[in-house]
Structure formats: structure tokens, C-alpha cells
Amino acid sequence: MTPDCKTPLRTALGLATAGVPVLPLRVGKVPFGNCRACAAVACGGRPNMKDPGPCLCPAVCHGWAAATTDPRVVTSPAWAPAWRQAVAVAYHPGGAGVTVVDLDNAAAVEWARESLPVTRIVPTTRGEHWIYRGAMRSSNAVRPGVDIKSLMSYARWLGPGTGRMADLPPAVRALAVKEETTPAQREVVSSLSARATWDRTVATGCRHTERYVRTGLERGLALVRARTESGAGSQAFGVAQFLAARHAQCPGPCGLDAIGEDIVTAAVSVGVPETYARRAVANGLKTASERVA
Q: Which of the residues 30, 86, 174, 223 could staple to 283 if both were Cys, CB 3.0 to 4.6 A apart?
């Protein structure tokens, strides 16, 4: 990505040349509205939208889907009125092959520093953008103050940032998986047993005492079970990551698979679909090993 320039159009041309799909933003830092022919997506939409249609409108219609790397389009007469009103430049992260973790406040930034691999960081007005190499589906409010912007989304260009861009980690992918954490009253959400499965017989190579492991596990399970309305899947990921990291220096085995089963059971007990719970926990265990490698 190229350094920021003095005007939105010049910035956009530099980014497009570097292969980053761009579009202008109007007052409010939002995309321009559709033209009359494209209003309410009557034209069918851009070919790269979720429901592709035949739209070939030369104007800046359909928000993120209008983003382009073609300098001829960027400087075309159809885009000229938008550039005259533009106050900023946006880009399509997924089209550029990246994912932006948008951290909207200091608490979100602190969470990222504790939970995510270091990567390229771009300061924002209220927080930071953490940019990873690799695309995924976008999702808003995956955590308090945290949005994921990649496919079918746009992000405001705020400069190239600093730091080496890391590959998109499982920890970020896990955040975007939809959780269903409000089961109907008295609904049976799973046949999984609530019995703890970890004991010393599956942890013959663990350097910790049984009391240490059980205390940490029970505290983690309590955090997951407390998420009765939302966030249990993400909490299960975080607990799995935290507990696994405690065993990074053990010769092993430490019974992490059994610990993982306990976390899955706790997540399912508050309504997280078992498939998602297992994926989140597996990603948490894996991410912990990657961070200490």
C-alpha cells in the first residue's frame, strides 16, 4: 500500500496502482448513494455482490462493490462528481486480500494486544485497525468495540500503518462465526455430559499440580457459563487459549483434549451450537501453541 497523499483522488490512484480496490467517501465518511437507475438495487447489483446481477453502471453505485483498481474508472467522468465531494477514500479489504480488525476504543485495543498475534497496525481516531493477510467474511460487533471488515465491506484508508503484516489467524476467524446463545427455556441444547473429563490419568506429563489445573479450569468454565445471552463461543475460545498457554512449557501430555471437552460442554450448556463450540475451542488451543512457538 502506498503512503497517503494530499487529496482523496490522488490517494485513490496510488492505492489502485498498488492493487487495492478503492472508492470515494462522502460527508459522514460513508459511500455515495446509488443513482436512480440503481436505486434499491433495481439493476440487479454488481457482479461481485452476494446476489450478483447485470449492473454495468459506470457511477459509484453499490457501496463497497463499486471499489476498483482500474485507474480509468477512478478518473472517469462518471466518478468525477463524487471525487469533487469526497472527504476520504475507502478500500475493499477482501478485494485486496486482507482483513481489518477494527478496534473502536481503548478497551478493544487492549483486548487485541492480549489476544491476537501482532500485525500491521493503523491508528484511527478512537482506536486502531489491525490488518492481517487473508480474506474472510465480514462481521460487526463480534466483541464490544470490535468489527471485522474484509469481504463485502469497506474500510477507510488512514495510511499504510506500521509493522509487518501477519497471516490471518484462527483467533480472528473464530470471532465471526455466528453464535446462538439464547436457547428457548428448558430447551435441550445437547446431549453432552456436564461431567468434568480431565484428570491426572490423561495428564501424565503435566508439570502442574492437579489443584492448579482444576482451579484454572473451573474458573474458565465459570466464565463461559456466565455468558448466557451472548459471547459464550468467543469466551470459550479465549478460555481454551489461556489454559493451553499455561502448559506451553510442560513436557506433556497435559490432557488438553480433555480440557477442551470440558470447555465445549460448558459452551453448549448455554446454547452455543456444538459444531461452533468445538471449532472455537480447537482454534483457541491451536492459537495458544502458535503464539508460543
A: 174
The β-bridge relationship of strands 155-156 and 88-91 is: antiparallel
Query: Over the range 273-292, which residues count as b (16 or more CB within 10 Å of their CB) and which as e?
Result: beebbbbbbbbbbbbbeebe
Query: 82-137: per-residue pLDDT in tens?
Result: 999 999 999 999 999 999 999 999 999 999 999 999 999 999 999 999 999 999 98
**Measuring CA to CA, which residue among 245, 282, 287 is closest to residue 263?**
282
Q: Model pTM greater than 0.90?
A: no
Helices assigned H by DSSP within 53-166? 71-74, 80-85, 106-115
pLDDT at 287: 65
Q: Widest CA span of the chain, in angstroms? A: 73
SS (HEC) of 201-227: HHCCCCCCCHHHHHHHHHHHHHHHHCC
For residue 113, count other CB atoms closer than 10 A to its CB. Answer: 13
Angle at 150 between CA 280 and CA 264, to 5 degrees: 5
Task: Give yes or no for a contact between 237 and 280, defined as CB atoms under 8 angstroms apart.
Answer: yes
CA 23, 25, 30 angle in degrees (round to 5)? 115
Distance between CA 44 and CA 276 in Å, rounded?
A: 34
